[in-house]
């Protein structure tokens, strides 16, 4: 293991000042150099270099799942994205579980994996990098590890965006559900996609004195505690742009199909807009669950629950009042 040792020493001495690091050796069991990630300084660097020089390939088989669970349980520090450099020369029997675990925490952990020698499992090495947005490298017999690790380190140490917030501005007469941000850091080349569901609530708030408006306001205030966005803030703005886009693109189904809305003849006067925020919450982060797809192994035998509904059950469903009115 002299070549990996030399490469690790070079990588360790190339880290940025004030970053956090730790070293974990794994086999049948695993050992951590520090009980928690340490700040990079002269003292911690000296301890790490001495530990690397004493590394021996004597820890038995390959068990990645347990050390990976330990890593994920460690707290995430703001401004310090978790970058995992994994070196392995073998294969494991639970590759699927390892990939699933890292996929569920890919928003906070990025893996740069290195397969050393002909016995390294290509599915494992490539999969770890793919599900987390990292890079996979393979080394043939006699090939040097240092250049490939330096290449991955340069890509990993580029400046990133953290504490990302997305601000949505929408009219007061709407209620919006926005998607949470699914990553704690944005690396160069990453794409952040956000979604919002907008519902027109003008029918509920058209009459300021109606009991329906009071019930709606109470409902919205109760639901705001579990909402994905912060409490709305009002700002003075007109509704011309919103009305124009809504008329051109189509309105809510309830507004299209309910004839009562056309008979009422009431004008919705709203002169303010609200803001909603979608932001990263590292302290309260929960792993995103993977949605099974037809291409995943083992999903072919799972029946679609929607197919259990019989036709006669659907025929017994009574129509909505607006459907009867419209007909």
Topology summary:
Layout: H1 2-13, E1 20-21, E2 24-26, E3 30-32, E4 38-39, H2 42-53, H3 65-73, E5 82-88, H4 95-104, E6 109-116, H5 122-132, E7 136-139, H6 146-156, E8 161-162, E9 165-171, E10 174-178, E11 185-186, E12 196-200, H7 202-205, H8 211-223, E13 233-236, H9 240-249, H10 253-257, H11 260-264, E14 272-279, H12 311-315, H13 321-326
Parallel strand pairs: 5-6, 6-7
Antiparallel strand pairs: 1-4, 2-3, 8-11, 9-14, 10-12, 13-14
Key structural traits:
alpha+beta, 327 residues, 3-stranded parallel β-sheet, single chain, 3-stranded antiparallel β-sheet, disordered C terminus, Rossmann fold, elongated
Characterize the structure shown.
The protein has helices at 2-13, 42-53, 65-73, 95-104, 122-132, 146-156, 202-205, 211-223, 240-249, 253-257, 260-264, 311-315, 321-326; strands spanning 20-21, 24-26, 30-32, 38-39, 82-88, 109-116, 136-139, 161-162, 165-171, 174-178, 185-186, 196-200, 233-236, 272-279. It is α+β, with helices and mostly antiparallel strands and 327 residues long. The protein has two domains: 2-158, 3-Layer(aba) Sandwich (Rossmann fold), CATH 3.40.50; 162-279, no CATH class. The strands form six sheets. Strands 5-6-7 form a three-stranded parallel beta sheet. The protein has a three-stranded antiparallel beta sheet with strand order 9-14-13, with no helix packed on it. A two-stranded antiparallel sheet has the order 1-4. β6, α5 (122-132) and β7 (136-139) form a beta-alpha-beta unit. α1 (2-13) runs antiparallel to α2 (42-53), α1 (2-13) runs parallel beside α6 and α4 runs parallel beside α5 (122-132). The termini are far apart. The model is unreliable at 218-271, 281-285, 299-309 and 321-327 (pLDDT under 50). Residues 5-138 form the VWFA domain. Residues 240-301 are annotated as: Disordered. InterPro entries: VWA_domain-containing, VWF_A, vWFA_dom_sf. Pfam families: VWA_3 (PF13768). This is VW5B1 protein.
